[in-house]
Amino acid sequence: MKRIVCLFVLAIAVALVPAMADVAYYQAPEDNNNQIGFVYGGGPAGVGNTITLAGSGLLQTVDLFGYAGGGSKPIEVDLYSGTNPNTGTLLGSEQVTPTGNGYTTEVFNFGGLAVPQTLTYIVSIVGNSGSYDDSFVNWQQFTGAAGSPTIGTSADMWYGSPGSYVVDNSYAVATGASTNTLGVQFNVSVPEPGVVSLLFTMLAGVGGLAGVLRKKLT
Length: 218
Prior knowledge:
Layout: H1 2-16, E1 20-28, E2 30-36, E3 39-40, E4 43-44, E5 46-52, E6 58-69, E7 75-81, E8 90-96, E9 101-114, E10 118-125, H2 132-137, E11 139-144, E12 153-160, E13 166-167, H3 171-174, E14 184-191, H4 195-217
Antiparallel strand pairs: 1-14, 2-11, 3-4, 5-10, 5-12, 6-9, 6-11, 6-14, 7-8, 7-10, 12-13
């Protein structure tokens, strides 16, 4: 009987998977008049923010807003737990190679990665030599528009390379940006309204069914 109940619960879970919706739980609309290059302190660098999502769930995609310059080097997004990428756990990494030229949204698919509400993301150019072509032409990351983020919150802005990132909460604005954030959106899968209550109702029904079966078997 336990096997029957377990299979029934599994069937419920599978049935409810499509009842998940992707919700923007962090959103910093881009300022397409201001870009930031991937160089800092005279050398190649990744750049990103510590952020807190507006809710919990499973991370599906991270969308970056920028300008593709026709380069062939991939962009990488690394996610670290907590507020410090030097000490936080690397949760996941994804790469996308931009195509063509012009304004673009690059989508990084994390496929339902479980992430904490507070994390730090770093964007970098793979194989970045620090040259103008690598750091600026290949891909220019838009900074966040005034008032960003509009969903969730942001904290420190980080620059550098793995293990030696540094905080600089004035550099972006000092070089012409509206904010010390990047133009980025985190899309998280969360249950559709009513799904959670439906799940509890169905599980209660499973419990009642198990009780009936137990009585019949005894």
